[in-house]
Amino acid sequence: MCKLLIGIKTSNEQQQKFHDIISAQIPELESMNDGIGAITADNKNKVEVFRSLSDYDTIFNKTLSSIANKKFVGIHARKSTSGLVNENNVHFFGDKNYLMAHNGVVSDFLGSTYFNQYGGYGGQNKELGFMPTKSNTAHINGTKSIQIGTNDIEEMTDKIKRGCSTCRAYQDKDELCLMHDEKLVNALLEREANEEDNIINPSVNSKKEKRKNKKNKKKKGRSSLNEDNRYSDTIKFFNAMKKPITEKSIAEDMDRYGFSGVATIYDIRKNIVYLFSTREIACLTDKRSFLIAFSYAPSSTKRELSNFLGMSFYDKVRLEISGMRYEIKKGVHKFNLGK
Fold first, then answer.
1. Residue 24 · residue 319 · CB < 8 Å
2. What is the signed CA dihedral for 159, 164, 165, 169, rounded to 10 degrees?
3. Could you say which of 105, 148, 197, 233 would form a disulfide bridge with 109 (CB–CB 3.0 to 4.6 Å)?
4. What is the C-alpha separation between 148 and 150, in angstroms, rounded?
5. What mean pLDDT value characterizes the chain?
6. Which CATH architecture has domain 3-106+229-336?
7. CB 62 within 8 A of CB 100
8. Which residues does 88 contact at the CB level (< 8 Å), separation at least 6?
9. Residues 6+ apart with CB under 8 A from 3
């Protein structure tokens, strides 16, 4: 599962506390390694979105560097459960009116993903430490330590097992280790995507043909995206949501599509933050100047750098947050950030 936090600040009364609590979450967020995204809105309603598949430090620095004049901050670290592990699936995403991030699943949009198609992510076997995969699937190691160089399923699988001692432990079974099962799906879906792109948009020199192909892609519409295995279930959920978005429409769509977890949507035009969940949400707030909500149990210690004998050390400093721990009731909540 992913990790999500959102921070709303109404004044700078506890500015340093707001900053320290968010910066203390960096180790928690870094533990989710499939992409990092952040959104900020300043006091003049300027909205910025930062996203990266791997450069977590840059995202944190950009988010925290000017936090003094921010009234809204959101950070999402992804641990993939559906869709490719690529920057397209890094949260926050949306359109010109809304931006969304989500920690959880949307069951109605898992059926067309690789859960069923490839058998990957079918539920980890906690005793053996591997995930079963179907006999007709293969896998490529994303670390590039194994060079496959073939499209033959059996040959690919054999090469993987020769290069991974954990996979070899299950050589008589139709299974791969957890890491390779995760990479397997991405490799297969990337291959599918390339094959599809070659069919839809072959190499042509004619501008007329290129324009025609572009129009054909647009004609696929929303329903097509929701059947595309490359996209996460949350992107499909956002794509299917009724617009314009309201508290009522969110609640209806949560029920309609089997939403679970914690999510946020930022209405760019109206400067409204929606926070919605199917469970209680941990939060830290002084009930005067700021509120920070978390989809996980927040860290209460921050790291400070110190030096001794020419060496640098990280000291863990406990934050003073007594009396600030609360839980937000499950449901749909609306925060108007004002003009």
1. yes
2. -60
3. 233
4. 6
5. 77
6. 4-Layer Sandwich (3.60)
7. no
8. 230, 231
9. 25, 28, 29, 31, 32, 76, 77, 79, 103, 294, 295, 296
Pair 107, 57: CB distance under 8 Å:
no
Residues shown for the chain: 339
Residues 6+ away with beta carbon under 8 Å from 52: 35, 36, 37, 58, 59, 87, 90
Picking from 289, 254, 273, the residue whose alpha carbon sits closest to that of residue 333 is 273
Structure confidence by residue, pLDDT tens digits, 17-27: 999 999 999 99
pTM assigned to the model: 0.70
Q: Where in the chain is the domain with CATH 3.60.20.10?
A: 3-106+229-336
Please give the Cα distance from 135 to 164 (Å, whole number). 18
Decide: 233 and 109 in contact? Cβ < 8 Å: yes
Assess contact for 88 and 60: CB atoms under 8 A. Answer: no
Q: How many CB atoms lie within 10 A of CB 128?
A: 14
C-alpha closest to that of 124 among 87, 161, 160, 177: 177
Q: Where are the alpha helices (DSSP H) in the chain?
A: 15-23, 26-30, 56-65, 114-117, 153-163, 165-168, 178-200, 207-219, 221-225, 233-240, 247-257
CA distance 251 to 257: 10
Rg of the Cα atoms in the chain? 22
Cβ-based neighbour number of residue 171 at 10 Å: 11
Cα 52 from Cα 38, distance rounded (Å): 9
Amino acid symbol at 145: S
Give pLDDT tens digits for 147-189: 334 444 455 556 555 656 555 555 454 555 545 555 555 555 5
